[in-house]
Amino acid sequence: MTTPSFGFACTDANEPLKPWSFERRDLRDDDVRIEITHCGVCHSDIHQARNDWGWASYPLVPGHEIVGRVAEVGSAVKGFRVGDKVGVGCMVDSCQECASCNEGLEQFCENGMTQTYADKDRRDGRPTYGGYSDQIIVRDKFVLRMPEGLDLAASAPLLCAGITTYSPLRHVNLRKGQKLAVIGLGGLGHMGIKFGVAMGAEVTLFTRSKSKEAEAKALGVAHVVLSTDQAQMDAVANTFDFILDTVPVPHDINPYLSTLKRDGTHIIVGVIGPLEPPVSGAQLIVGRKSVIGSLIGGIQETQEMLDFCAEHGITCDIETIKIADINEAFERTVKGDVHYRFVIDMASLKEARQAA
Asked: Crossing angle, helix 161-171 and helix 299-312, to 10 degrees?
């Protein structure tokens, strides 16, 4: 049995997203069917749609920043009821048996987590399709409860941009009074700033654009440093406990390493691929500095992040769009022309279906 669904998909790396009718699996005993109200547009959606990473599978329905309401639950589901506000992030299943899964780190599942789209269901091998659609069916263990008080549209990007920046800051135990620098003021960067400020850190923004200063200060940063100005970089040498690097393309991290304190840590969450140019061993050895990476977060930690956001009034700064405008949104995202995340209002799917 299957469930008829409708959304937007691309059929190869060179084609725009278009309306597409498709089938999702029918409800299993431990599944939740969610009517999607909003879905964030992540830069990784663009990378996957265009096969920039080389592992896309088509037809491809992007979207892993999903919020909506429970429409139906399987017979074994106890934690959710019809009408509940819920969310789904970057993964929809894992083996639930390995050491990482047992520690609540499903994103590092040693048998491979199941991604929300462009992957295969681990039980029946059917392709997974994402949130640019009217509904999604997800194993209950991978459904998040959306706290009351959080706007659903502005909360959608928390399921990727939010947890991607929250998790590493928790991992390194960012504390009140410590100094955090954030590289890049985009979808990830502005969330890193909000979390850093809420955790009590003194936050600095590294940017290549002087025009970002006012908006960064509005987000709560204490200082803005132009990374292209050597005098400003020299002035913050040996300053930061942590650097959160959100830049999604290869870049030289060596100048930033010199701004870390002894035992400081540079956290990579943006770039997937080689660091260019290579990291200088001397930069690490002198000062016992570290470079680490981080990948989203486990389900328990993602729920913790959502609850933290509700407590501190944190959401993503968004621009809401109709699904028909998704290809333009992709182009604008690539150009950095969004503050700071597009979110699709899925009510617009009705118009798209009628026009298709």
From this structure: 100
